Amino acid sequence: AAAEKGGWPSFMAKEVAEEPEAVANTIRGRVRDGAVVIPELDGLDDLFTGINRIIITACGTASYAGLVGKYALEHWARIPVDVELAHEFRYRDPVIGADTLVVSISQSGETMDTLMAVKYARERGARTLSICNTQGATIPRESDAVVYTHAGPEVAVASTKAFVAQITALLLLGLHVGRVRGSLEDGAASVAELEALPAKLAHVLESEQGHVAQLAGWMADTRSVLFLGRHVGYPIALEGALKLKEISYIHAEGFAAGELKHGPIALIEPGQPVFVIVPSPRHSALIHAKVVSNIQEIRARGARVIVVAEEGDAAVLPFADEVIRIPLAGAFFEPILAVIPLQIFAMALATAKGLDVDQPRNLAKSVTVE
Ligand code: AGP
């Protein structure tokens, strides 16, 4: 097993280190003449032109990738997208039919809840497309089309490289569908953003790993951590919290930053650690200002604020206890970078607590029962 880990202390550490490669491999072969063209979807344009809505279905981490995908798909392809946990979708008599494309996301391709949702969608006449990391798995076999993520085998129970590959595949899908439907405007710029991602991921790993691991070491006795995000930072907050629960057994919750005043702010007491994913002010000065004002609100109540913000964003400095930097990237590409420090944080905290990061208690890598 030590050899399989290639010198890394855990599969999770190895898989985090492989993230730049996972993203690069998922993009490879899917850009033609400055546009995203997914060869597996050749001749399947009617999957995207003959529909009026998309439902993304998945469980756990894959569902958070789906939420990022919703924002991107709606923006680029101008089509309504809902994200539904597979086990809820399947049991609530949803309104679906031939005008619906159901996109499932699964690393293993064997998750029973997701498989049952796909089968159910097909029985109801919907078209189905799967985003999957495992060649020839059951979910892609049960779907009309498949777009593989090429993250390579993921062994650690906590998903890391598959998650960034899933978001990458959803961005590719959004750009492909936007082009096919004729709604895409900033295609070439987005392709440039995609191609720049692997190097930026490598940069985050290099520049922040030590800093984040040190933070986690200081926080080994923490009993609860909150995560806030807005726009595509919201699913990243959810994912940061899930990682921490899964491998560090620490109570963690992710919130949409705008929800704070609707309840969660009552949780803030002196010393409460809160991670805040701050979107770039270059994408939307308004969204950025709203998140900075959320930071001020929690700081005023004594929260210990750890900010994930783009390089050069000075507005966060007066209110942050710690600042983790990520490189500049387009709005929909930023979450792929922002999640890395959260994955490293969870891994380092679990390690500081002496836990087995690859095999957390009570969990299985793929949940093949309903
Ligand atoms: C991720 O860290 C989890 N272990 C879990 O939420 C996982 O993403 C979920 O069970 C879905 O698995 P799948 O992608 O193989 O379908």
TrEMBL record:
Keywords: Aminotransferase, Cytoplasm, Glutamine amidotransferase, Repeat, Transferase. Its main location: cytoplasm. One of its GO terms (biological process) is fructose 6-phosphate metabolic process. One of its GO terms (cellular component) is cytosol. Its EC number is 2.6.1.16. Residues 44-183, 215-360 form the SIS domain. It is found in: Cytoplasm. It catalyses: D-fructose 6-phosphate + L-glutamine = D-glucosamine 6-phosphate + L-glutamate. One of its GO terms (molecular function) is carbohydrate derivative binding. The active site is at 365 (for fru-6p isomerization activity). Catalyzes the first step in hexosamine metabolism, converting fructose-6P into glucosamine-6P using glutamine as a nitrogen source. Homodimer. This is Glutamine--fructose-6-phosphate aminotransferase [isomerizing]. The gene is glmS. The chain holds residues 238 to 607 of 607 of the full protein.
